[in-house]
Design a protein that fits this description.
Layout (H helix, E strand, L loop, with lengths): L1 H46 L2 E10 L4 E10 L4 E6 L4 E5 L5 E4 L7 E3 L2 H18 L10 E5 L5 E3 L8 E2 L1 H6 L7 H11 L7 H12 L5 E5 L3 E11 L2 H6 L8 E12 L3 E10 L13 E6 L3 E6 L6 E4 L3 E5 L3
Parallel strand pairs: 3-7, 4-8, 7-9
Antiparallel strand pairs: 1-2, 2-3, 4-5, 5-6, 10-11, 10-17, 11-15, 12-13, 12-17, 13-14, 15-16
Length: about 325
């Protein structure tokens, strides 16, 4: 009897590992990206303007690239935003690092100084913009760390002014006449004068063409930022998708079209050629192919050391950076 119980427990654990372990890892990965997109959408509503998400800017000093979660640009604001989706009890150490306990990993974690990190990324972005011909005063961009996780708890209320905690975040209001709106302006403006229209347009154009991570949107409004690598599947399907290359295609979308037999379904993959002369492509330029829904997208999330495979049937769209 005991042998049967032990065997049953082993089988149950293996079942959870194979069927739920990967799902849990995916949920953890996408939750961080979802938090970034949620913050970006709310910032646009609060402050207006445009929020650029998932920039991957080259750092000339180190020869590497720096991830920038959000760059917020409006006629009154210019800010680099780092989104920390941390949970549990969080405290700040003397060296600026954060210690998190009781979060989703259920163990003590240490984070490098988020304020120093986002300050460095703002400096890298300024250098990049100057290389592309934009003359910016030193320290032109303000920088903020936003914590949007409702399970965040402060152990000591000693977070610097650059950090917007969850309690502060949920209290922000977009109405210009409210008392909180002035706080929003102060949080992201820093007293800078409104940008001239021509300068504003130039800045938006350069940021719109800056290096960014590829963007994968999954069903259920889940997002993943990272690098698209290739398609995997039957040879006839990968051959049908051979024209979808980074240099030629900027965006693809999927939709279910038909069933084959009892189990296999087909997906319609719609894509358009990349147009470097404009931001979009006309409907006449769209291309369509049909492939099996079991075809996979091989993708390397930017917050993971592992390459992931996502079935096309679970994907809503894929945007490829130039």
């Amino acid at each position: 009897m005991w042998l049967e119980i032990i065997c049953g427990l082993i089988i149950y654990q293996l079942y959870r590992l194979f069927f739920y372990g990967t799902t849990h890892a995916l949920d953890v990965e996408t939750s961080d990206f979802n938090a970034i997109f949620s913050v970006a959408n709310r910032l646009e509503k609060l402050c207006g303007g445009k929020a650029y998400v998932g920039l991957n800017i080259p750092d000339a000093d180190t020869g590497t690239r720096k991830n920038i979660d959000i760059v917020l640009i409006s006629k009154g604001e210019a800010a680099v935003i780092s989104v920390k989706n941390v949970s549990g009890f969080v405290s700040i150490n003397e060296d600026g690092t954060w210690t998190c306990e009781g979060g989703r990993s259920h163990r003590k974690e240490s984070l490098p100084d988020p304020v120093a990190e986002v300050k460095k990324r703002a400096s890298v972005l300024e250098s990049y913009l100057e290389q592309r011909g934009v003359a910016l005063p030193e320290g032109y961009f303000s920088y903020k760390v936003i914590i949007p996780n409702p399970n965040f708890r402060e152990i000591y209320r000693n977070f610097p002014a650059e950090v917007i905690t969850y309690d502060q975040w949920v209290q922000l209001e977009p109405e210009p006449k409210s008392m909180m709106f002035g706080w929003v302006k102060g949080a992201f403006n820093g007293g800078k004068k409104a940008m001239q229209d021509s300068f504003h347009q130039q800045l938006n154009f350069i940021l719109g063409t800056a290096p960014m991570w590829d963007r994968l949107e999954l069903k259920g409004s889940k997002y993943v930022l990272g690098e698209f690598l290739e398609f995997k599947g039957k040879e006839e399907d990968t051959q049908a998708l051979r024209h979808i290359k980074r240099s030629k295609v900027g965006h693809i979308a999927t939709q279910k079209t038909s069933m084959l037999g009892l189990a296999h379904s087909k997906l319609q993959v719609v894509y358009y050629p990349r147009d470097y002369r404009s931001e979009g492509a006309s409907s006449s330029e769209w291309r369509e192919v049909e492939v099996r829904s079991s075809t996979e997208v091989v993708f390397h999330p930017s917050n993971s050391n592992k390459v992931r495979k996502y079935k096309l049937s679970s994907i809503t769209s894929l945007s490829l950076s130039a």
